[in-house]
Design brief:
By secondary structure, this protein is α/β, with parallel strands linked by helices. The protein is 47% helix and 21% strand. It comes from Isoptericola halotolerans. This is Nucleotide-binding universal stress UspA family protein. Belongs to the universal stress protein A family. It holds the Pfam family Usp.
Length: 119
């Protein structure tokens, strides 16, 4: 059992991580941090792992393929995830109609509850 969250450097991604850490603590489960698959983030991921370890958060960093929505859903299914935490950003009126293809895919395909947060 674990909380699944994507690793993104955006304000929405950072808020999702903060919320995921809080949920992991409250539920007393581990945290699975799924990378976006972007190159050049090794140092940032190492620093994140150190911060989580120092905070006493049981965690594992899972390498993504580049399709974060698919990676989050797959990881939650394979690892018996309790919850997926995603960050949402404000959208224009037209953008609201489609929510965001990644967020929509996660909401529709997730094998567990999804918590959407905003900064």
């Amino acid at each position: 059992m674990a909380i699944v969250v994507g690793h993104l450097g955006t304000p929405e991604g950072k808020e999702a991580l903060v919320t995921a850490v809080s949920e992991a603590r409250q539920r007393e489960v581990g945290l699975l941090v799924v990378t976006s698959g972007a190159a050049g983030a090794a140092e940032e991921l190492e620093a994140l792992g150190t911060r989580l370890s120092n905070a006493g958060i049981e965690h594992r960093i899972v390498a993504g393929t580049g399709d974060l929505a698919e990676d989050l859903v797959r990881t939650a299914a394979e690892e018996d995830g309790d919850l997926i935490v995603i960050g949402l950003r404000r959208r224009s009126p037209v953008g609201k109609l489609i929510l965001g293809s990644g967020a929509q895919r996660i909401l529709l395909e997730a094998p567990c509850p999804v918590l959407a947060v905003k900064p």
